[in-house]
Each structure stands twice: as structure tokens, then as C-alpha cells.
Amino acid sequence: MAATTQSATAGAVTPARGRLSGLDGIRGLAALFVVLHHGWLMSYPGYPANTGPVWTGWLIYGHLAVVVFIVLSGFSLAVAPARNGWELGSLRRFAFRRAWRILPPYWPALIYSLIVAWTLVPQPHTGPPTAKSVVIYGLLLQDVTDAPSPNGAFWSIAIEAQLYFVLPLMLLVIRRVNAFVMLAAVAVPVLAIGLLTPHSSLVGMLMRFTPQFAVGFALGVVAAGVLSSTSRRRTWPWHWLALAAALPVLAVIVLKGSVWTITHYFWIDLAISPAVALLLAAVATARPAPLVRFLDTRPVRSLGSFSYSLYLTHSPVIVVTHELIVAPHIPRGVTAFLVTLAIGVPLALLVARLFAAIFELPFTRNKSWPALHTAIRARLVPAKA
User: Fold this and answer.
1) Which distant-in-sequence residues (6+ apart) come within 8 Å of 145 by Cβ?
2) Is the pTM of this model over 0.85?
3) Residue 237 DSSP code
């Protein structure tokens, strides 16, 4: 998985080009997991204690899906540079493409979330959004300062956007030195923050930025190096290495329980991120084949195609479903959980797919204003016979 700065080495292979099968599927399943997690939260009180039945206990850990998103983001953004000597290209072009990808769906989702919170029901454990909420969330500063949240899923969007600013520096270090130095340069300060936080309130303030995600993002970048590595390295058993890395973390989660795990997410996130990065390296090299085939099935791939919209829009849907439809008639518990999912999940998927058709997919398919304008015009103006 280690990256190399050499453009040609003995045993090197031409990196695979085109779409990497399975990555969209991972993204889609992670987004669906977050939807189920929020349905669980609405149905069982006492978080971070697991007050639901054992068979639903895994749904309390929706936070871990964000780890997957962050590592996958680093991986996906590093694919092209890894195939091109770790060159990012124009910083201006990179910034435009990231803004083009993130903001057109995000800002409409913010407006939609504000309308739902003001007219139907606000998000749990927070008051109705304020003018400060509009400014803070509109500028993606929700991890910098507090404001009533219009959408419980928005907290991670600011973190990911901020990581985009450090990607060029990460790639520069890989290009000038190597991937391990880059990873150490990110991990050492983050580990220092984690170790010093119990002893310093000033250092502890940095925890609001969830610095552990910077390590996960960097691991994703490093994992992309498998695409330009030697043929021998590409055939390593990455999937078994991923399983070996994940099992100790999963064992700790099971043994320690939800309260300990959730209050120690900083360390859990750091511990599970290598397993996610190894899994991405495995999927990128088409292994294990049954998993890659499943991830690349049409339904799962389709889910991944609008996973960002699903992540952005599902929380208000789940909250409205539970608070206005389920809760007035069914007390919290298994029945409320099942009914919330039965109504909320299909509705969330429908809303997300329609939302994506307007605010996400046109921007992923058309990479500039002229291209988007041409595509819209082609749809609105019938072609002449």
C-alpha cells in the first residue's frame, strides 16, 4: 500500500484506468447505514447507552460510517494523482472541482433542512435554527463554533471540506519524500492532541475539529498508492489484511460496550481507519471478487450514485417520520423502530433520489457551467426532427 515517487520501477505495472468497481457501492452502503442509525436513535432513548435489543445494537455506531466516508474521500481524491506521479495539477482547478461537487447539493439541502426545522419539527436535542445557524452552516463553519443544527448529518461536511485544503500538501510530501513521512507528519500531531487533551483544556478545544479524521483521510491517500505500485504488491492479500486490522477493534467495541466506545471515538476512529484503507486497497485491486461483484451490482451502485444526497437529506425525513407520524401513536421501542424504518427509509431514498436528480447528478455529469447549461438546454428544448 505504500506509495512510491518513482515513475518506473522494476516489476511496475501500468495503473488501471477508468472507474474502480465497488467504491460507489461502499459509499452507498455507508450512507444507508447512517439512515438506519438515525432511525435507531429516534426509536431508543439513552444514547450513548444501548437501550435497544441486542440484534439492533450495531446500529448505534453510525459514526463509524463517517470514518468510511473520510477514508474513502482521501482514497478517491488521490486516485488520479497516484496514477500521475502524485501530481495534483492546477490548484485552482482542484478547488473549483471540489466546490462544484460539494456545494450545489449542500446549499439546497441546507435550505430544505431549515424549512423543515422551522415549519415541521427541528432536529432532536437542539432548538430551532437561528440566523447564526444560517451563517455558520452556510459557510461550513459548524465545527468552528456552535449554533442550533438544522440537520444532524451536517457536522461532517465541514470537516471533509477542510481536509481538501491539506490534500495538496499531503501529495507534495509524498512526491518529495514518501507516503510514510506524510502519514507520520499527520499522525504524530493528532496523537499528541489525543494524549494531551485530558491534561489541557486548551488542547482539548481542538477535539471539536475531530482531528483523527485527518489521519483517516491521509490513510486513504496512501491506500490509493496501490494503483501505481508493483504487480507483486497489487496481489497482496489486502482483504485479509483489512480483516486482521478490523477484528481487534471490533472485539474492543463488543467487550467495552457502546458507552465506552462512543466516549472514546477518537481512538476507535484511529484504530479502525487502517482497516478501512486496507479494504479500499483490496476493492481497488478487485478482491475479494464476491464482495466486489456485490458492490458493483446495479442496485448498490445506483445507491452510491446519490449517496451524497441521501446523506444530506435523510435526517429531516427520519425525524419528521418518527416525531409526527410514529411517536404520536407508538411508544419508543421495537415496534416504533420497525415502523420508523418501514416508512422513513423508503421515503428518505425517494427524497434523496429526486433531490439528486436536480442538485447532485447534473453537477457530477457536467463539470462546468457551459456543460451544465448545454445539458439543461438540451432537456428543455426538444431536438428538431
Assistant:
1) 136
2) yes
3) -
